[in-house]
Specification:
Helices cover about 50% and strands about 15% of the residues. The protein is an alpha+beta fold. α3 packs antiparallel against α4 and α7 packs across α8.
Length: about 290
Amino acid sequence: MIPHFNSIKGFNRYLNLKSPKKDLIDVVKYDDYDDLKLESAGITFDYYMIAFKRNMSDLRWYGNTEYDENSGFLYFLSPNQRIEWKSKNQWSGYHIMISPILLQEFNIDFNFFKYQISEALFLTEEEQMRVETLFEQINDEYLKDDYSMDLLMAYCNLFFTYVQKCYHRQFNSRQPLHNKLVVEFKKLLNTYYLDNPNQLPSVIYFAENLNLSPNYFSDLIKYHTGKTTIEIIHEKTISIAKKDLKSTNKPISEIGYSLGFEYPTYFSRLFKKFTGKTPTEFREINTSGNKSI
């Protein structure tokens, strides 16, 4: 069983860092230490971690591609997400560990909190300078004896908002790579029911087949197509349903079941949402049209 840490204090001890000032949040500047733990076979913890690092070796492990720069990078870890590392040299940068309780209290939530470590954000030189400035603001406030939690979280929220903007830039710069992923997703969707009869397709299914986290997969699909992943899935499902309604005499409930809908009413509601008509109305219109030809 791999080590699991339910306190920041325990994690800091493992990484050779000093104890945190508070139980719910800790801000670390790596340059303040000269004995970081350079290797770990794998650990998990109960917190979110946001890490900005420079001078790390083997950037491919973090998802670096030919479209990215090799300056600093950011990655995110959610509670119970495993992390392992092996570095030849001590890295520099910062990290924040923060409790889910604190994020919930301040109503802070971003999709990239649940990205995989291999879906890191690789920064341009300009972005790196801005990120370092934001981290310094967070760290400076945290180091004050009378620091304000409200101000600290406001700085964090500003930082997260900027990171979201940077991820959009990365989605754009990786467009050739992501276009291939969009095409592969649509290929999988087109053949989905051949391998998975009577099962509704899910975002998780396609993300796993493309070796991506559901959040990262959904975000890149939305960025490059303008539609959510579930919208595209539903459009395909309804397209198949329309063909069956026009070309077969199958009961509507049977068509719904064959597409993975457990309840016919759910199938009918979704069908009407996309077509403006119930399955019965759609079939009647198309059947009467066929008879008049």
